[in-house]
Amino acid sequence: MFSIDWDEDSDAANAEVLWLDDDRAFHRVAFKDGAPPALVVLPSERGVARGYLQRLSREFQIRDQLDNKWALRPHSFEAESGTLAYDDQPCRPLSAYIQTRLELPDFLRVAAAASRAVNGMHVSGLIHKDIRPGNLLVGETFDDIRITGFGIASRLPRERRSTMPPKVIEGTLQYMAPEQTGRMNRSVDARSDLYALGVTLYELLTGFLPFSASDPAEWIHCHVARHPTSPRELSPDVPEAVGAILMKLMEKSAEARYQTARGLEQDLTRCLNELESGNAIEAFELGSGDASSELSIPEGLYGRRREVQKLTAVLNEMAVCNLSRLVLVSGYSGIGKTSVVNELQRALVPLRGLFATGKFDQYKRDIPYAIFAQAFQGLVLQLLGKEEDELAEWRANFLGALGSNGELMVNLIPELEAVICKQPPVPALSGPEAHTRLMSVFQSFIEVFATKARFGHARSLHTCFDAAGPQALDDNWSLSRQRGWAYSPSDPPLGPDPRRRSTDR
Hints:
By secondary structure, this protein is an alpha+beta fold. Helices cover 40% and strands 11% of the residues. The chain has 19 helices and twelve strands. The chain has a five-stranded antiparallel beta sheet with strand order 1-2-3-5-4. A three-stranded antiparallel beta sheet has the order 6-7-8. α13 (388-402) packs antiparallel against α16 (431-450). It is globular, with a radius of gyration of 27 Å. Mean pLDDT is 82; it is low at 1-5, 452-458 and 475-505.
C-alpha cells in the first residue's frame, strides 16, 4: 500500500499524466525507492465532487473477481489520497482511436477482442453497466483489450431499475441500454453490456455516436424510442454483415440482441477470417452460435397488446388535446395490472412526462391519504437528485404555489422539507375548514409538477394507484372521512368521488 502526495516529500519520483477521462485521471508513476512503476488512477476535481472515490473503492473490493486476461486488475487502493493502483502496462483507451478511424481489419480485431473480454467478465459473474470507449483499454496489439471502470459493476444476474432523474442514473447516458434508464419496465442484465458495446463499436467504426442529444432527458428518449442510423448510411464501405451485427447489438429489446458476448465474438471472428482470406464479407445468418448456458425468461408482456395500446392512445390524446383522463384497470390479484400500467413509462419518455405510483398496503389502511403521499414522495425524491440551480427553481415554484401553507404538505410528504426547507406553523382550523384548506393546498402542490411556465411546455403528470380491490380504496377513503380529510361532493374539484370510481369497475 502506498500514498501519492504529489509534493517533494512524496515517494513518487515522477508522475506522468497519460490521459484524462471524465471523472478520473490516469497516471504512470515512478518511485524514488526503485519500486516498479505503477499505473495510478485519481479522481478529478469533478470526480471528487460527484463521489467518484466510492467507485474506485468498489472496484478494489471486487478485484478478486477480475482476471488480468480481460480486466485491468488493481493491486492497491489508498482511501485517504483516493489512489487506485495497477501494475504498469502499455495501454491506451479505445476513445483515443475514434477520431483516427481504424481500418476495417483492425476494427474487427478490436471488436472481437472486446467481445472476448466482455464474455470473460460475464462468465465471472459480473455485469459492468458502464461499457464505453474510456473503459476499454487497448494493449500492445489490437487483439489485447482489457476492461476497467468497475465502480458500478454488479454481481447480480439481474437488476430492476426504478425511475430516477436522468442526471443521477448510474452509467454513461450516451452508451446506456434502454432498460438501464429505468423507463422500459425491464431488468438490467448481461445483455445491457452488449448494447453499450454496440454503441461503442458503432462510434469506433463510423466516428459518430448513433444518436445525438442536447440534454439527459433527450438521451433517454433516443435509447428508448429512436432507432439508430445504419452504419452503411454513414460509411457505404462498411460490409452489410458488419453493419447488421452492430444494429443487432443495439436492438431496444434485450431478447432481440445477441444473448452472449461469445456469440458476438464468433460472428466478428468470421468476418475477420473472411477479410484476411482475401474474400469479401458476405451476409450470413447472425447469431448461429449464440446460445446462452443460462435459462433466461423473456420479460415481455404477452396477450396484453390491446390493453397497452388503449392506455397509450389515452396518453397521446392527453398530450395532444391537453386533457385529463381517468382510466380504470381491473382484474384479479397477480394477473398483471401493474405490469400493464408500467408500460406507460416508455411512452412517457418522448413527452417528458412524470410518472408517479402508489400501492395500497393492508398494514397502512389506518393512515389517511397514504397512497397519495407515497406516489408524490417518489417524485420529490427524484427532485433531490437534481443540480442545485434546477432544484432552486423547483423550490421557488413550490413556495410560490404553497405560500404560507407549506407545512401542510411537509406533514403529508416529509421529504418535501429537503426541497423547500423548514416551514412556519400554519394556523389551526376546525374540521371542515381544515379539510378545505388541505385540498386547496394539495391541488396547488400537484399543479407545480404540470405547470406550463415551469418547463416552457405543458408537462403531463400520470399517477397510478395500485389497490388490491375496490374495498381497499373504500377503506382508505372512509378512514380519511372519519378524520375530516376525505373528499365529498362539496369538496374542491380534485376529481370525482373515488368510491364512485370503484363502483364503476
